[in-house]
Structures are given as structure tokens and as C-alpha cells.
């Protein structure tokens, strides 16, 4: 199967772009703390500014989160350069990279160094999140699925080792 060299970066760019666009719309149209029902009893848009990581853990540790995102960026680029990846793994890494960059951009450009969160599902009572958060989760899921699939693309030596 022919390797698609730049799929990972296209997915990452689309993820960052769409994530930042949605956050911009939320910041411009919905005051912090306000909510709009999308589907009553199922999902609402709630504008929150999260100073921490997932579940608001470790609040106000901006540079720690920026450092972690930078490490993710370097690790993703390293893995992509080093191994032949199937399409699902490239999409997974692209989502992971795009999600990390999307939240890192928020932390850097926001005057309060917070991340804009806006999606709340009543049905699962999960904390308010954003597209970047979901992209990270789905990226990791796709990577796990890819790692267990048989018949994935392998390196030139046929052993699945690095190039």
C-alpha cells in the first residue's frame, strides 16, 4: 500500500483550523458562563474558560501545558519520520497533533492563558470540552486500533522496524 506522506499534517492543520474557528465563534457570540441548548436534555453549548488540563486539573500551569504540547509535537514528528504508518495511525497522530496545537494556541494567545471549552453532553455528564480535546481522545483511540490491526504497512525490511 502506497504511503501517504502528508495525511498526518493535513489532518492536524484541519483540526487546528476548525478548532480555532469554533472557539472564535463561541468567544464572540456567547458570554463566559452562558449556555445555549442545542438538543434539550442531550447537548448544549456552554462557554467556559479552563485554566487547567482535563477536568480543570492543575489550574494555571500554563507553561507546563505548553511544554507538554511541544513535547507531543516533537514526538509525533519523530514517529512520523521514523516509521511507515498506515492511514489510521496517520489520522490518529494528526488528530493528536492538531488537538495539542489547538489547545496550546489558546493558552498562548489568551490574555488569561485559558482554553475555551464549549460542549456539554447531558447524557454522559462529562465535563465541558472542545474539539481539540475530542481530537486528542479520538487520535489516541485510532492509534490503539491501528496498533492492534493486522496487515498494517511495514517498513521496507518487512519486519515493522524503523526505516
TrEMBL record:
The keyword Iron does not apply. Its EC number is 3.4.23.36. It is a multi-pass membrane protein. GO terms for cellular component: plasma membrane. The active site is at residues 117, 133. One of its GO terms (biological process) is proteolysis. The chain crosses the membrane at residues 7-26, 62-79, 91-109, 121-145. Keywords: Aspartyl protease, Cell membrane, Hydrolase, Lipoprotein, Membrane, Protease, Transmembrane, Transmembrane helix. Pathway: Protein modification; lipoprotein biosynthesis (signal peptide cleavage). It catalyses: Release of signal peptides from bacterial membrane prolipoproteins. Hydrolyzes -Xaa-Yaa-Zaa-|-(S,diacylglyceryl)Cys-, in which Xaa is hydrophobic (preferably Leu), and Yaa (Ala or Ser) and Zaa (Gly or Ala) have small, neutral side chains. Its main location: membrane. InterPro entries: Peptidase_A8. GO terms for molecular function: aspartic-type endopeptidase activity. It is found in: Cell membrane. NCBIfam families: lspA. HAMAP family: LspA (MF_00161). Belongs to the peptidase A8 family. This protein specifically catalyzes the removal of signal peptides from prolipoproteins. This is Lipoprotein signal peptidase. It comes from Alicyclobacillus hesperidum.
